[in-house]
């Protein structure tokens, strides 16, 4: 008898494999990132195809094989319809999923990371604007969950408590430098940006998108998160 196991998974991408099959990359709550073969999904009458579309939350029954594991059955729990029918949302989701796929190693399960990805898609599905800001928050929270947590309360140079005057963000050392240390290198960072990063580390995406952010702080925080991502990975 074939060995089977169940997954609650988010479909990251799907690509052709053999004549009528596809390779489906998923991130699951139970087993982390997996690469499954979906047999016959390119056939017109395939019952699996619609349930294994990228950017879907799907309940999968997987079958263990000698060389590959297979998606034996699948039922879509949430297809995130609003994302797939909005080009701007679809572009934002594509960018976020690409970064997620790059950062996540296969076969390492983490429920907190699964929930973060699920929350991101749920928030994006109903959000009407501000997709770039949502993506920055998602990337930052993902980096924190993966162990790239920046120091936002104490100086990475002297260890002293951070005060607003003269702060800088040292990308290489992953945290704030206080004004007393007079760092020559590092990004100048405002008090508002520090407060926003602290909130991003602590609060849910649903709470974060409700914060009113001025354009200057938005641009500054986005640059810091983007640069911190490129420096960390």
Description:
The chain is an alpha+beta fold and 233 residues long. The protein has two domains: 1-125, Nucleic acid-binding proteins (OB fold (Dihydrolipoamide Acetyltransferase, E2P), Beta Barrel), CATH 2.40.50; 129-232, no CATH class. It is built from seven helices and eight strands. The chain has helices at residues 81-84, 87-103, 111-126, 131-145, 191-202, 205-208, 215-232; strands spanning 4-17, 21-28, 32-38, 57-63, 69-78, 168-170, 175-177, 187-188. Helix 3 runs antiparallel to helix 4, helix 4 runs parallel beside helix 7 (215-232) and helix 5 crosses helix 7 (215-232).
Write a brief structural summary:
The protein is α+β, with helices and mostly antiparallel strands and 233 residues long. It has helices at residues 81-84, 87-103, 111-126, 131-145, 191-202, 205-208, 215-232, and strands spanning 4-17, 21-28, 32-38, 57-63, 69-78, 168-170, 175-177, 187-188.
Strand proportion, as a percent range, falls in 15-25%
Question: What number is the mean pLDDT?
Answer: 93
Question: Distance N terminus to C terminus?
Answer: 43 Å
How many individual β-strands? 8
Which structural class is indicated by helix and strand composition? Answer: alpha+beta
Shape: elongated
Rg on CA atoms, Å: 21 Å
Q: Spans with pLDDT under 50 lasting ≥5 residues?
A: none
| Major sheet description | 5 strands, mixed, barrel
Any idea how many domains? Answer: 2
Number of helices: 7
- Residue share in helix: 25-40%
The CATH class name of the largest domain reads: Mainly Beta
């Amino acid at each position: 008898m074939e060995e089977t196991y169940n997954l609650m998974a988010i479909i990251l991408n799907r690509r052709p494999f053999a004549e009528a099959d596809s390779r489906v990359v998923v991130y699951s709550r139970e087993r982390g990132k997996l690469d499954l073969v979906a047999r016959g999904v390119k056939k017109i009458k395939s019952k699996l195809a619609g349930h294994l579309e990228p950017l879907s939350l799907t309940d999968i029954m997987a079958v263990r094989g000698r060389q590959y594991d297979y998606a034996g059955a699948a039922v879509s729990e949430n297809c995130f319809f609003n994302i797939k029918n909005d080009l701007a949302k679809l572009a934002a989701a594509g960018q976020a999923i690409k970064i997620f796929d790059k950062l996540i190693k296969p076969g390492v399960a983490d429920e907190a990371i699964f929930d973060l990805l699920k929350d991101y898609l749920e928030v994006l599905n109903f959000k009407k604007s501000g997709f770039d800001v949502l993506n920055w928050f998602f990337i930052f929270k993902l980096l924190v969950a993966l162990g790239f947590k920046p120091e936002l309360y104490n100086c990475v140079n002297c260890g002293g408590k951070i005060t607003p005057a003269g702060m800088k963000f040292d990308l290489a050392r992953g945290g704030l430098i206080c004004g007393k240390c007079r760092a020559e290198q590092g990004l100048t960072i405002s008090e508002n940006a520090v407060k926003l990063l602290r909130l991003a580390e602590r609060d849910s995406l649903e709470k974060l998108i409700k914060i009113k952010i001025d354009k200057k702080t938005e641009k500054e925080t986005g640059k810091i998160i983007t640069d911190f991502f490129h420096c960390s990975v």
